[in-house]
Amino acid sequence: QTHFVSLSLQAKMSRPVQARRLEGTDKNIWVEFVKLAATYSKVNLGQGFPDFPPPDFLKESFVRALSGENHMLHQYTRAFGHPPLVKILAQFFGKLLGRDLDPMTNVMVTVGAYQALFCCFQALVDEGDEVIIIEPFFDCYEPMVKMAGGTPVFVPLRPKAPKDGKLMSSADWQLDPAELASKFSERTKAIVLNSPNNPLGKVFSREELELIAGLCVKHDVLCLSDEVYEWLVYDGKEHIRIASLRGMWDRTVIIGSAGKTFSATGWKVGWTVGPNRLLQHLRTVHQNSVYHCATVAQEAVAQGFQRELELYGKPDSYFVQLPKELQQKRDWLVQSLDAVGMKPIIPEGTYFLVADISKFKSDVPDVPDSDEPYDSRFAKWMVKNKGLAAIPLSAFYSGAHKNNYNHFIRFCFAKEEATLKAANDILQKWKKEKTSP
Ligand code: PMP
């Protein structure tokens, strides 16, 4: 009897439990690095979130929504977006794009930009479709394409040497036009664009966007445009929306995030903006998976946008103030890193900065023939031994390319002055220990 039970149990256990679509997508660097940072870090410049509070007007909106008269804000709202939020998003993005947007069909609210991306891939990518991804990239694009049955096709940004003695800029990382063109074929369904780009902070120029747009139109390819860092652009640079270029509105889904826009990543309010011919399919995925995002959070974000629409372009606008503050923080971190010889690549946008760790290699020797890219081992060593958390750049490359650029790490500088000073202290102390025998 026992023998029979154990045999049948064994038979059951030997059957694969996970769906085939999950094969090869189970590893996630955030699980590992978030845990390492929680365990060892004194200063966490790893994961991308601010350690300063969201603006008061936004917090107050949330409190009002939560404890005000309208108790219906505690109940379900419209699946594709709380009406006040889709209305103001349509108005706001309509103004930015110079076109009339219908709140009900051209906008959909999601649980963060993350779910917006998931809806895009599930709704628009089929078995056998190819999706072009520009490396380095926000890591979830690859597993999301694979889970939809698609094949990611990677094309790298290639660094050009900066002018003598100058620090490199994220603008020095560029696409090779011929290489990019060679990736488009009749199998290509979409390209993912992320400008400003995480992790480099690159803000794609009009010429670069026109190159991509031209190829999309020529090959009838969709563009999934992840613009979550749209307001975080520095040195007078301009964020250009690819959907505003000729022939692109009809083939582009814009993805945005209130988490990044209002420094409230835990609220998980995101959105998509685009033509109904694309969004109607995103709605199908959304209604059959998540249904909708927390009503109170949507109401508060709607009020935040209402304020920003009234203050648009004015000095009091949060979308004007935040980049100013972040530019200052960027410059502090650039100085700290440059002073110790951990060469920063100056980002034109986002709140990330990638730095070259070559000069620190003697502290963390390479292990020949190891499967783990050097930068990953370095970042782990750094958090354990120096208490400073950062993310290896190889995390933003596909499997086959993880060793192409393995001597860089990414820092997040959306942090209080005290946090950045503490990081500076760690770096200075480290440098002293290195130079004095
Ligand atoms: N896209 C990019 C490029 C990101 O960096 C992030 C967050 N790190 C997201 C999307 C996800 O945004 P959200 O927190 O709104 O889900």
Layout of SSEs?
Blueprint: H1 2-14, H2 29-40, E1 43-44, H3 56-67, H4 83-97, E2 107-110, H5 112-124, E3 130-135, H6 141-147, E4 151-156, E5 158-159, E6 173-174, H7 177-183, E7 188-194, H8 206-219, E8 222-226, E9 252-257, H9 258-261, E10 270-273, H10 276-287, H11 295-310, H12 318-340, E11 344-345, E12 352-356, H13 374-386, E13 388-389, E14 391-392, E15 408-412, H14 417-435
Parallel strand pairs: 1-13, 3-4, 3-7, 7-8, 8-9
Antiparallel strand pairs: 2-10, 5-6, 9-10, 11-12, 12-15, 14-15
This protein binds 4'-deoxy-4'-aminopyridoxal-5'-phosphate.
- Tally of domains: 2
Rounded average pLDDT? 95
CATH superfamily name of the largest domain? Answer: Type I PLP-dependent aspartate aminotransferase-like (Major domain)
Looking at the structure, what is the overall shape? globular
The amount of helix comes to 40-55%
Tally of strands: 15
- Which strand-content bin applies to the residues? 5-15%
Order of helices and strands: HHEHHEHEHEEEHEHEEHEHHHEEHEEEH
Bound compounds, each kind once, are: 4'-deoxy-4'-aminopyridoxal-5'-phosphate
CATH architecture classification of the largest domain: 3-Layer(aba) Sandwich
> How many H/I helices?
14
CATH topology-level fold name of the largest domain? Aspartate Aminotransferase, domain 2
Main β-sheet, in a few words? 7 strands, mixed
Strand order of the largest sheet: 2-10-9-8-7-3-4
Radius of gyration: 23 Å
Organism: Phaetusa simplex (large-billed tern)
Pathway: Amino-acid degradation; L-kynurenine degradation; kynurenate from L-kynurenine: step 1/2
GO molecular function: cysteine-S-conjugate beta-lyase activity; glutamine-phenylpyruvate transaminase activity; kynurenine-oxoglutarate transaminase activity; pyridoxal phosphate binding
Subcellular location: Cytoplasm, Cytosol
